[in-house]
Batch of 3 targets.
Target 1
Amino acid sequence: MIGTLIPHFSPAYYAAVESAINALEVHGLDKCPNYGIEGFKRYVALAIVARNIRRIGDILWQQDVERKRKAIKRKLKYQQAA
């Protein structure tokens, strides 16, 4: 009976969840200064939003680096052809 109520997740799923928890802790969610369940929920939601904004920034930065790398490669290609 109990086995049917608990869903089975792969070890990779648990690793991803632990990684996300660790990332939140590193970025300030180690102690909650708010009181009550509503304050805790608000605090967790804001921490998740902050983490997502940081992730979006990392992705945009990586795209910018890749764009600059391609521009340099293209410039070198045209210089060698001339």
Target 2
Amino acid sequence: MTKENWELKLKLFGSLGFSEDDTLSVFRRMPPALAVSARKIKEVIEVLHRRVNTDTSFIVYHPSVLLSSVENSLKPRLVIFSQLKSKNLLRRKTSLATICKLPKMNFIKKGMLFLNLLNLEKCHFH
């Protein structure tokens, strides 16, 4: 990576509320995040902040989320997480990080169970 690109990444993360130490931590924990485009970094952070009100510390501790597909992975997981949380259907304290890190097939299996739970709840209360 050129010095110019490195400085652009630092500036980008700084404009999104990250300190220089936070930015360095993200890249130390997940070096492939250096290759993620500025557009995608902004999109991931915006979606996380808007949908589940995360702050920069979530990205610092879970930088792998920057590598996730926003449309195919992150948004569907956030929808299910928000629905389950709002309806108090999480059996134990399931974190957003756990939902985001589930392998795709596990998420699909569990997602189907979650959707069934939501449908059952609708049937019982309506």
Target 3
Amino acid sequence: MRGLPEGNEHGHQAVLTLDRDARAEAILAALGNRSIALVGLMGAGKTVIGRRLAARLGLEFVDTDHEIEIAAAMTIPEIFQRHGEAYFRDRECRVVARVIGVAPRVVATGGGAFIHAATRAAVRSGAVSVWLKADFEVLMRRVRKRNNRPILYTSDPEGTMRRLIDIRYPVYAQADATVISRDGSQDQVVQDILAALEAGPLRAAAELGAQPWSGQPRNLEPDE
């Protein structure tokens, strides 16, 4: 039997080598050559849940925010400060298209990624999207634990978060599946994701016949 995944120096989680169970195999067969992209606001748990979901399915995990930082050799707050949000969103779109286009993976996207049309199109072209939806109180409780959210560097972070919810939640609702991200068992959230995929987008894909992974990259764009 193979061991648990560990992150490498690029922030990627190595693929599990344990034999997958029948449920995981069925989900991967229905996915075909697509990834699973987690979308949602900061604090929704995309990274921590994404790692657990990847481990459950035996897939590689990629965090696009971390990939952007590696490519730019700067933290995200530094990118915002030096170059502005428009520059960051352009880099983000390129990274999302690149990491989704390599092979089936679990991909955690940044909070604003799915809001931008070009990045949303990149997600749709090569992934099944899952919105991790969390209540305002849950989000604020989580984001207060870290000081790396430049969009909340305001005199009224709670007001900013409420405005983001009002603006972004209707767009996140366009994702292929929605799962509530709540405090408590992270493994239960993973189970909820699997059930949502099986009941919705993957069920439709199975009926139509998913395309198996060919081993060739898709939709690759240079991260320049």
